[in-house]
Write a structure and sequence with these properties.
disordered N terminus
Length: 131
Amino acid sequence: MFTWVHHWTVEILHDRAQSNCVMAGHKAYQQVLHTVPRHYCRGVCDLTIQQPGFDLPRQQWSLLNRFRTEQGHCGVCRRKWRLTDTDLCPYGETQTMSHIVESCPMTKLNGGLSRLHSADEDTVSRLTNYG
């Protein structure tokens, strides 16, 4: 599972890559980014471009990124943060951020995380209603 340590590792590598990019050009940036394990960047195809939804209002952008990083207000995280005693959704399944989008009968989004990542108009509307 994605943890804050992994998130900060990606951020540090990303910052280091940007610094190297200024001195050594775009190639250095690409080389450092290839050291980031792919599962830390779910749905992100190219870290060198603005991601879909970048221009959303802050609340929607933050929520979108919570789903992308699997670090949001779901049962698993709330239990890990000791905010609740259970990690189950109302339907009895373990509630992760991906469960909310991909398999929960109450909140499932057709197309799952890949559609959520696209940040199309319908998805943004769902984010607004969810958050």
